[in-house]
Specification:
It is built from eight helices and 14 strands. It is an alpha/beta fold.
């Protein structure tokens, strides 16, 4: 899952990005409206965390522009504006949820998961191919009915491949989904990760396998259940 955090407080942003990484979210952080619009123009996000008081504009107006443009990405407003009127403006302006600062990181993560479980969103889906079963809410993988422990990156990768099972997934799209703007993957990081996940699947007796398509990317293929 890839998130966009729009927050101008450097320390809070740093803590938020780190906390969300521990629960499987890759997060890009920008500090203002202009940078947010630039990020949204070049990347696809599963959800946005939006502060309303930004140095170069009002987050509420940014959200309204996104909604007028037909952008339905889930938006969680995280702001110090706690008055009832502010909360009503935020929700009426297009927010899917509204969280008042200061907040606990565990609650932020839980609210994001709740947003992403809504119909049509990224979570709340069981993904299966062959004897591989992945629960995107609990982020657990089973092969042949047995739980298979994977690292966070391996779990992220298998979700990406499962969501496009039977279709080629480019190396660039995998890297974009796994790493935020501030993270830099080694030249062969994706190849190493794919190799490690492929080995785990084979060892667990998976009936689907990861194929390398030279010059294109990767493909997860196997018997459907």
């Amino acid at each position: 899952m890839r998130l966009l955090l729009i927050e101008d407080h450097d320390r809070l942003a740093e803590l938020t990005v780190k906390a969300l990484a521990t629960v499987g979210f890759a997060t890009d952080r920008v500090a203002g409206v202009e940078d947010a619009e630039a990020a949204l123009a070049v990347a696809r996000y599963d959800a946005i965390i939006l502060d309303l008081g930004l140095p170069d504009g009002d987050g509420l107006e940014l959200m309204r522009r996104l909604r007028r443009a037909g952008n339905s990405v889930p938006i969680l407003v995280a702001t110090a504006r706690s008055a009832l009127g502010d909360r009503i403006k935020g929700l009426d302006g297009g927010a899917d949820d509204y969280l008042v600062k200061p907040f606990a990181m565990d609650e932020l993560a839980a609210r994001l998961r709740a947003l992403l479980r809504r119909p049509g969103a990224a979570l709340g889906t069981i993904l299966e191919i062959g004897n591989i079963r992945y629960d995107s809410t609990s982020r657990t993988v089973e092969i042949g009915g047995r739980s298979v422990p994977l690292t966070r990156r391996e779990t992220d990768l298998i979700e990406i491949l499962l969501r496009r099972a039977g279709r080629a997934v480019s190396k660039a799209s995998i890297e974009e989904a796994l790493y935020g703007f501030d993270e830099h993957a080694d030249l062969n990081a994706i190849e190493v990760l794919v190799s490690r996940l492929r080995k785990r699947l084979v060892e667990a007796g998976a009936s689907a396998e990861i194929h390398t398509l030279r010059g294109i990317g990767y493909l997860l293929r196997g018997d459907t259940p």
